[in-house]
Design brief:
By secondary structure, the protein is α/β, with parallel strands linked by helices. It has helices spanning 7-19, 30-39, 58-65, 84-96, 116-125, 179-189, 221-231, 234-252, 280-283, 287-296, 312-318, 326-334, 346-360, and strands spanning 23-27, 48-52, 69-73, 103-105, 129-133, 141-142, 145-146, 155-159, 172-176, 193-195, 208-210, 258-260, 274-278, 335-338. The structure holds pyridoxal-5'-phosphate.
């Protein structure tokens, strides 16, 4: 049984237990997890789904896969997450236009949870479902409670891609406390085909039947075995990331030409990414020049992400253009993602911070 064997349910049980949720399904990617969660809400062509303008494109794509249309929420210039204030204003406007979304997908950017209690209260007022895109936040918390416990949402999704908190090579997880949603998502994971006790017709023990549209989003046993062993080290990995991030912040927080993500509870952050914003005007160099300066010193800076609405595909499909979500765009113009992973040491962080001092001053 190298697929659909015994490791799969054991891995799922252990993740559910770790997060404090009732149900968990493991699938072949974070995108698949988000897709089956969104699809199981029953969205159709007349519906809207909203997500953050500052995320990986998958957060928006999964809404489109259901036939629904996508719209975006701008981000806080400090935390880079969507906020209750931004959401509240957009919901009020959408209610007056009778264009309220069926689902909102908050993204816990870089591993820091959105303000979920207030977002959930707003969504409840308008009867809107919430799927948390926690692909970057496994091992993190919100107000001391684990991300993944689903207390503020219909479902929470994680990615097990190699750069994430833990990995199964490729893979994803979706958690929920809703039995009905769990059963729908389980069907969507395997072509919409039911077997065993779940079939509608009593034909015989061999009988399987397709009850709904579905996909092959299954994950293999060897991926689950890797995921299960990685899960044992999740807290150790996040603690290491926290240590490195604290060291970065200590070294960088007083340099006037740069700015860091606002973090109110560092102990809750999963520290998927270390974000550094540059005042290129004050430095007197362009973003490209600063990137090249770090490259010359052996430091490869990344950028996450091109605001989703500015991607040519999304501009063409919905007519978005520059200026639509100004804070996401400002972030994109000034930010770089610094190296942060469990193989890094504090001496590496020191070297990178020395480079920052050299380059910006
Ligand atoms: C915020 C966010 N959403 C969704 C995904 C998609 O996850 P995966 O690559 O496992 O499909 C990722 C990972 O790249 C992500 O960072």
């Amino acid at each position: 049984m190298i697929s659909q064997g015994e490791v799969l349910p054991d891995f799922e049980r252990k993740v559910a237990e770790f997060c404090g949720a009732k149900y968990c399904l493991a699938v072949n990617s974070g995108t698949s997890a988000l897709h089956i969660a969104t699809k199981s809400l029953g969205l159709n062509n007349n519906d809207y789904g909203w997500t953050s303008a500052m995320s990986f494109v998958a957060s928006a794509n999964v809404i489109r896969y259901t036939g629904a249309s996508v719209d975006f929420l701008d981000i806080s210039p400090k935390t880079f997450n969507i906020t209750p204030e931004i959401l509240s204003a957009k919901l009020e406007k959408a209610a007056s236009q009778k264009r309220l979304p069926r689902v909102i997908i908050p993204v816990h950017f870089a591993g820091q949870s959105c303000e979920m209690s207030e977002i959930a209260a707003l969504a409840a007022r308008y009867d809107i479902a919430i799927i948390e895109d926690a692909c970057q936040a496994m091992g993190g918390s919100f107000n001391g409670n684990r991300v993944g416990d689903c207390r503020f949402s219909n479902a929470v999704c994680f990615s097990l891609h190699p750069v994430k908190s833990i990995t199964s090579g490729e893979g994803g997880l979706v958690l929920t406390n809703d039995r009905d949603l769990f059963e729908k998502m389980a069907l969507l994971r395997t072509h919409g085909v039911a077997r065993g006790a779940n079939v509608m017709q009593d034909v015989g023990p061999w009988h399987t039947e397709m009850q709904t549209d579905g996909y092959n989003y299954r994950i293999t046993e060897f991926q689950c075995a890797l995921g299960r062993s990685q899960l044992k080290r999740l807290e150790e990995f996040v603690a290491k990331r926290q240590r490195l991030a604290t060291h970065y912040r200590h070294r960088l927080e007083n340099i006037p030409q740069i700015r860091l993500q606002q973090v109110d509870r560092p102990e809750d952050h999963a520290w998927h990414m270390m974000l550094v914003l540059f005042d290129f005007e004050a430095i007197g160099k362009s973003k490209k020049e600063v990137h090249a300066d770090f490259r010359e010193r052996g430091v490869n800076l990344n950028m996450h992400y091109y605001p989703i609405h500015l991607n040519p595909f999304y501009q063409d499909l919905y007519g978005f253009s520059e200026g639509d979500f100004p804070e996401a765009e400002k972030y994109w113009r000034s930010a770089f993602t610094f190296p942060l992973h469990v193989e890094l040491e504090e001496t590496d962080v020191d070297y990178i911070c020395d480079c920052v001092e050299e380059i910006v001053t």
